Amino acid sequence: MLTVVKMPLNRAEISALCDAAGLILLDIAGVTDVIPADAAWMASACGSDDGRFDEEFEFQDPDLVRNANEAWFAIAQRHRLLDQRREFLLSLAVLESDRFPVSRWALVKLKDEWDIIGAGTANGLLGGPYGRPGFVMVSKTGYTVVAGTTWQDGISIISLPNPHRASAIRKFMTRTPEGSVTDEEYENIQNWLSRPPNDTGRAFEK
Length: 206
Description:
The protein is of the alpha+beta class. It has helices at about 10-20, 35-40, 65-80, 120, 165-175, 185-195, and strands at about 25-30, 55-60, 85-95, 100-110, 135-140, 145-150, 155-160.
């Protein structure tokens, strides 16, 4: 399973943590047309038959952070996580009024200088402790999920194209009982599940 440090943060706190990782916080979304953020965390439960691709690194690698950062950026470019403006969606736990913390997609932009696996994990935003990732990202089109996870002996950067085709994700979403989420969220889940295999959904819009 993916390691995740969920923190009930306000927008100013999230923005400061993003800045340290080399990300600019642009927006925090409610319900979107891309895969729900909770479901995207199931990327690590998917197999190669779902199209999952991994880059793995052992803890004993003296250049683990640098090598993993390079792998993340290569995957982000090759699998089109980043759009032309270097924007993508990042799963975060946020507070919404009096509700408990919920997973939401944050629209972020990658700066010229960034450190996803190092500074991003050290401050708890993208996992933790330092060099131990636990994050999920998705392209604005919903076409690709990219995740970072920490295992017993190392870490991996995961890419999952066409997440709506992945059996583990679909099974997870079909088990969401009505009433456990808002009506709008439940309707979005049902609409997402009903999409044909070649439909990647509409692009995220602010």
